[in-house]
Design a protein that fits this description.
Elements (H helix, E strand, L loop, with lengths): L5 E4 L3 H13 L4 E5 L3 H10 L4 E3 L2 H5 L6 E4 L6 H10 L3 E4 L7 H14 L3 E3 L7 H11 L6 E11 L8 H16 L6 E7 L9 E7 L5 E7 L1 E13 L3 E5 L8 E9 L13 E10 L6 H15 L7 H19 L5 E2 L12
Parallel strand pairs: 1-2, 1-4, 2-3, 4-5, 5-6, 7-10
Antiparallel strand pairs: 7-11, 8-9, 8-15, 9-10, 11-12, 12-13, 13-14
Helix pairs in contact: 1-8, 4-5, 5-9, 7-9
């Protein structure tokens, strides 16, 4: 049995998944489920009879048995709820995006540091076995030098009222990029438009510029007819395709393809490209729900008092990129520099 006691606040679409995974790790772990919607609390009472339900967040914070709070509420509420939990001496598991500004994440991180607490942000793809396999492949230099990365995350819905599609969907892809690559993007170009709700972009593209001429493209949309969750990584030696909608054994494909120019040439007529076409093969991936890895990582971070992989530094870097994307969109696609707070100590939360 786990000695830790956890409360989950926000039992909506994603909150139900968070609750389920924490509960399945140990059915004595989750003490409370919190939500303002009585129908959601009825759901908890029906499916998790050992979990107490309440609409009162402050009541839960006052319970000395509660060690940690998982906050799975709308993004605009994250900062206030997380800050209150930290001040009540509770560790915090926070849904992405961690807050609405990078400054808010800095405040949360500093509060956690002063209180000796852990913050973990639910950047699920950093715990996805397929993404971990891709990181291993890049570490083994399987693809050679990476030229560019293309990522697509589109579907029909779910629409948000307080954040645009960039803040809703691209944190997934940005967390993957921060996890896979040794460098952070230094600048970007973003463009987007609003079609359903005025002033809230529902389709957008980001072009992220890195050192060594690497570039990454992200396309996101709430109004696309087909759900796509894929990523292409093109290297000097091989190419990789990742489709997260496929079965585990077919999520990652390596293409032994590349194009080469002549090493030496005396005239334009001598300049010829060489196209290499080799075999394609799938890369084995463990069949384990990423959210279960996420839940376990949070418990480990708290029990061992060590920062998790998806810590507040990662969360803040992502929001710095999102803020830069907003600036670029407002400036009609102008290229903007991404400003990171490098004074935020990465050895802390």
């Amino acid at each position: 049995m786990c000695d830790m006691k956890l409360a989950v606040t926000g039992i909506g679409f994603w909150g139900k998944n968070i609750l389920r995974n924490f509960f399945q790790l140990d059915n004595g772990l989750v003490k409370y489920a919190i939500d303002l919607d009585g129908r959601r609390l009825d759901f908890v009472n029906q499916h998790y009879p050992g979990v107490k339900t309440t609409p009162d967040f402050q009541q839960v914070l006052a319970d000395p048995e509660i060690d940690a709070v998982a906050i799975v509420t709308p993004a605009e509420s994250h900062f206030d709820l997380a800050l209150a939990a930290l001040k009540a001496k509770k560790h915090v598991f926070l849904e992405k995006p961690a807050a609405m500004t990078s400054h808010e994440v800095t405040v949360l991180a500093e509060t956690a540091r002063l209180m000796g607490l852990q913050i973990m942000v639910d950047h699920t793809f950093m715990y996805n076995p397929a993404v971990t396999a891709i990181k291993d492949l890049l570490g083994q230099n399987t693809l050679g030098r990476v030229y560019y990365i293309r990522m697509t995350r589109v579907n029909l819905g779910l629409f948000q009222k307080h954040i645009n599609v960039v803040w809703d969907l691209t944190p997934h892809d940005l967390s993957i990029l921060l996890y896979l690559l040794p460098d952070k993007p230094h600048s970007l170009i973003a463009s987007g438009s609003s079609h359903i709700t005025e002033g809230i972009e529902d389709v957008a593209t980001l072009s992220l510029y890195y050192p060594n001429n690497l570039i990454a493209f992200i396309t996101c949309s709430w109004i696309d007819p087909i759900k796509v969750r894929d990523c292409v990584i093109v290297g000097a030696e091989r190419m990789l395709y990742f489709d997260d909608t496929r079965e585990a054994g077919e999520k990652i494909t390596i293409f032994d393809k590349r194009v080469e120019g002549p090493k030496e040439y005396d005239s334009f007529q001598d300049f010829k490209y060489s196209y290499i076409y080799g075999d394609n093969h799938y890369v084995p991936v463990a069949e384990k729900e990423p959210l279960k890895n996420v839940a376990q990582a949070f418990l480990t971070a708290v029990s061992k008092n060590e920062q998790p992989l998806s810590n507040s530094r990662v969360a803040r870097d992502i929001i710095c990129i999102l803020e830069a994307a907003d600036r670029s969109i407002k400036r009609q696609g102008q290229r903007v520099v991404i400003t990171y707070d490098d004074s935020h100590n990465p050895t802390h939360n």
